[in-house]
Amino acid sequence: MRARKLQPGDEIRVISPSRSMVMIAEDQRELAKQRLEALGFTVTFGQHCLEVDDFVSSSITARIEDLHQAFLDPKVAGILTTIGGYNANQLLSDIDFSIIQSNPKRLCGYSDITALGNAIYAKTGLITYSGPHFSTFGMLHGLDYTTDYFRKMMLEDETISILHSDTWSDDAWYLDQEKRHFIPNEGPYVIQAGEAEGTIIGGNLCTLNLLQGTAYMPRIANSILFIEDDLESSPQTFDRDLQSLIHQPGFEGVQAIVIGRFQQAPRMTQDLLRQIITSKKALAHLPVIADVNFGHTTPQITFPIGGRARVHASHGKVELIISS
């Protein structure tokens, strides 16, 4: 099930199903709102999005209320999450998925929102989106690529050929907007060659794995897995988390793996990642590519959880096409 494409004039509701918006500086909130308004949207905010508790979040009741209200409000066409965090999976057993199924809308966020997006797809069949948070649009420099792919996925009807950005960054941009460090981007690389097509499942790997063994885990048979991890990961934990995913029912039907760019802190190298992938017999027949523009570095694409992807990887060249 696909929610309709967004259009200029549509209302986007900002909610905080993970961490509170209180942690986003006020000037960055205002810039993010202006950026979305420049795309033609009206921006509104969930009633509880600024509430904060000892975990820099808010109560389950408050977060559920904002989520349900965003889907129920007929004026709202799209939903953006404030930021990620650690606890979006607390909401899953309290969500009335019939509300979402009856009021399909385009929900977008990444990181901890992986749990929410994949659970919604698993329970309702509604395609959700892994892409920028509301807070991402508060970035002063280096946002053009992210905005362009968000616009292509959310407003346009064509399938999208993913081209890599000229540069990428892993700096704490939110601490000093003028002190940025951009790194030349060599683009994605091939770990294992091949061609594949399938349904996109995934996002942040360690968060996706929180759904294992629950009713909120989507089927991974016939999928192309998009996976990434953040600075709390390491080569060892990524290996372990990937192995856990391989043990899931239906993994033998996975068609390909697309890996997002790692942050610098985990010290993942091409050599280490190749060793991890090639050490696993279950992956031997799969096309695998890495360093695609999604995850916890910037800029990033927006991709549809439950949408379709085609991968062609050979002789060091990567073609990745997605559609919502």
- Estimated helix fraction: 25-40%
Largest sheet properties: 8 strands, mixed
Whole-number total of structural domains: 2
Looking at the structure, what is the overall shape? globular
Radius of gyration: 18 Å
By CATH, the topology of the largest domain is: Glucose Oxidase, domain 1
Q: How far is the first residue's CA from the last residue's CA?
A: 10 Å
Widest β-sheet, arrangement of strands: 6-16-15-10-11-12-13-9
Q: Please identify the structural class as seen in this structure.
A: alpha/beta
Order of helical and strand elements: EHEHEHEHEHEEEEEHEHEHEEEE
Compute the average pLDDT: 97
Number of helices: 8
So what's the CATH class of the largest domain?
Alpha Beta
Q: Give the DSSP E fraction (strand runs of 2 or more residues).
A: 15-25%
The CATH superfamily name of the largest domain is LD-carboxypeptidase A C-terminal domain-like
Task: Count every beta strand, where a strand is a DSSP E run of 2 or more residues.
Answer: 16
* Proper CATH architecture of the largest domain: 3-Layer(bba) Sandwich
Low-confidence region ranges = none
Which terms summarize this structure?
324 residues, alpha/beta, Rossmann fold, Glucose Oxidase, domain 1, 2 domains, 8-stranded mixed beta sheet, 6-stranded mixed beta sheet, 8 helices, 25% helix, globular
